[in-house]
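An instance as discussed:

___
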Amino acid sequence: MTPQSGAGRPATFEPPVHWAAYETPAETTTRLRPVRTRRPSRVLAAAVCVVLGLGLIGGAVTGSWLTGDSAADGTAPAGYAEARGSWHSVPVDTLLPRTIEGDGAGPGGADRDWTRIAVAPDSNCANAFDPLLRKALAPVGCERLLRATYTDATTSSVITVGLLFTEAQAPAMETLRTRFTGEGLAERADLMPRTYPVDGTAAAAFGDRQRASWTVSVLTDAPVVVYAVSGFADGRTVTDPQPAKPAMAKGAITAPAQAGLGHEAKGVADRVERALRKTVAPVTETPR
């Protein structure tokens, strides 16, 4: 992926000057044709055609406004397509680092460190989400999905993080983000992301019933949805999963909150998102 920088404006091209010969007045070389008398019926027909044409153009423009047609408004940031393709053009160790440092990411500002224990093969989104979450994400499509599972330094918690590269342009991503924030979709338990369990690792028993806390972030400067879901490494069932934000709140007493699993999900997701932004920033920034 080739970074693009916001270079200054290119110098104005000044064409060479050619001194043309004096132009002979047209009336001295061409005989003017007599002007025909205009008929009222023809004038009226021409006026009707003009009005209808303007109406069709106006209707098309209005339709694109109402439907949010991204092809019509052309508002995609520079490099949006390149950012979408970074799932195969950027090394997986860059997008999903082998180790993640979480300075101050734990409860009370404690430091956290996470180690990647498995990376899922890149895939489509067919079986990656529960039906309701898949339906909520459907408007932006699924170009590719990258997932990895991490464990903390004590191997007491496991976290699956995902990067969903969408097929959408900027307006559709804006709409999805507005919906997720406005309707609180990111905090609904029936829209919780799925885990990526791996046999023979600390995440061997990390299934749907082990999901404890989660976070979902819809980006708008790149066609990507970032999410993470955390749970206990011992495979215990969690009956009261809680979104990361309330689980991180002071005084929260749920099992996910007490175990710091809200911090785990949020900490890993935030740092993977930062790594992504650092990688795609040169191609998504609009030149000034």
User: Anything to note?
Assistant: The radius of gyration is 28 Å. The CA atoms of residues 16 and 57 lie 39 Å apart. The beta strands are 99-102, 112-119, 144-152, 157-165, 213-218, 224-232, 242-243. Residues 1-38, 47-74 have pLDDT under 50 and may be disordered.
